[in-house]
Amino acid sequence: MSLALVKNSAFDDIRRRIADAGALIFDVDGTLAETEEIHREAFNEAFVATAIDWHWGRRIYKELLRVAGGKERIRAFDQMRRSGPPLSDAVIARVHRVKTERFAALMADKGCPLRPGVRAVLDAARSREQRLAIATTTTRGNIDALLAPVLGEQWETMFAAVVAADDVARKKPAPDVYLEVLSQLDLPAASCIAIEDSGNGLMAATRAGVPVLITRSLYFHDDSFDGALAVLDDLTEIAS
Ligand SMILES: [Mg+2]
């Protein structure tokens, strides 16, 4: 059998598993859209606005993305630089608040398209009356800033469960967001499929018992994805 045929039949199996799943559970950043560069820009604008003499380039941001959560990321960088007194919780919270405002403004200004194939997979699921959910470590405000322009103000009605960073105690790679989604959907983990772009996301879903489909993204394309159902470049490969 040719490599193309092997690849196609593997994708047929993935398409079938997606169509049969009790629910499709999506990560947001890097999976629904390539938002990380906009997050990075918003952090850099927040540092300027709060008179903090930092600038995060792509290389350092890639390292910082190992840390889930904006406030946690600011603190991790503060600890890495080891000069001057550490930033207080209040300062970190203020920088993060400004960053969140800048992110929303940048999204409203420029927008960020859904990744290729995402819309087709969402539409196909809805036409099958299959449930959709979101499990993310970004904030609700950030999800709204991303999805309202591309899916409409009523985007939340498309999803049977939306669980964000604010809703659980521990962020990915802890399984909390997935466990909360599963409890809201009242479905067994193994009957669902998670769609993720990072090793952290893969670990979070796997720890909750949810099988994972990976779509490689800008920042996490070289993560280790051992244990994933499949690793795709984007969802056009399985959109039918
Ligand atoms: Mg992600």
TrEMBL record:
Record key words, sorted: Hydrolase
Record's keyword annotation contains Hydrolase: yes
Top-level taxonomic group: Bacteria
Pfam families found in the cross-reference section: Hydrolase (PF00702)
Regions that span the bilayer: none
InterPro entries membership: CbbY-like (IPR044999), HAD-like_sf (IPR036412), HAD-SF_hydro_IA (IPR006439), HAD_sf (IPR023214), PGP-like_dom2 (IPR023198)
One Gene Ontology term of the molecular function aspect: hydrolase activity
The protein's name: HAD-IA family hydrolase
Organism for this UniProt entry: Bradyrhizobium ontarionense
